[in-house]
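pasting for ref
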Amino acid sequence: MPKPSSLAVNALALLPTHIKAQFMPNDKIMKHDALNSSSFACGELCLTVNDDNYHFNVAVKNIHRKESLEALLNESASNTLLICNRLTPYLAGICSKNGLNFIDAAGNIRIDNDGLHLWVESQKGNAKKALVNETKSNKFGEGSAKLLFALLSQPDILNCSYREIAECANISLGMVSKGLGIFETESLVSLGKKRRILDSKRMLAIWVDVYRFAIRPKLGGIRLEYKGNGQNIAMDEFDYWGGEVAAQMLNDYLHPEDLQLFTRLPLQKKLAQLNCRPNPEGNLWLVPVFWSDKLEWTEKSQALLAVAELEASMDSRNHEVARMIYEKYLYTETPA
């Protein structure tokens, strides 16, 4: 098991080259087993991204069980960060769901710090291949992301009442007002007498980004061990494929390996139907839907889920298929 000092060095060495890191350890703590140190007192880390500096109080720990995270979760904040051994998808999901920033020794990074959003997910067996998401703006949070999905899926709801929009997007009435206000400020929509979308191309680009850092980490769900490509899974009326299977249904170009299934059923009920064993490394990700049943499900909705999840992967083949689906199903020039 790596010592805390070498663990920090090894993990930071895997940062993307455009991110500079300066770690100042607390030597008194780093001499001891990090598991016995107080939370986020192992040192200070400064990350430099695009000439902006972001400072964190750091915990350096080996994490192998959920229980090892409890003290950190209780004290986590936007300016705290965990440096650790490779986290399983299950443990990484717990960190993301609870707002615990981390960098692990396999090259995985999830950080949300007042304007800096980083999502780096290392490919199995190759920590150097990673997808990085960063944005200087934290305007587009989970609520705005859900609103984007609804408007891109069914553009005509933009002229419905705010209450109807809220019901379709599965967000609060206040979030509709706030989100549309942000979109108008960003020149994405016009909220005049007849509301209209002004820049669908940019909205689509923003959707792919905000799905990755605002929706995907909060999906929760459960990973299952499934032998097959999804064709033999019994689908309920309100089950929806995302990712690679959704792409195959639209494009018939991929042979799905990583399966993502959205469902409205309680997860335990769907789990019983599937008859699959939970496995943090499993190839089937079962997740609850994040939109309302009042939103009309269309081919475009499926394309949005497919493209966002494909772009969140580290597979260049997936990225190419995402571009094909984008051009065929999603992007059309917005009339002047």
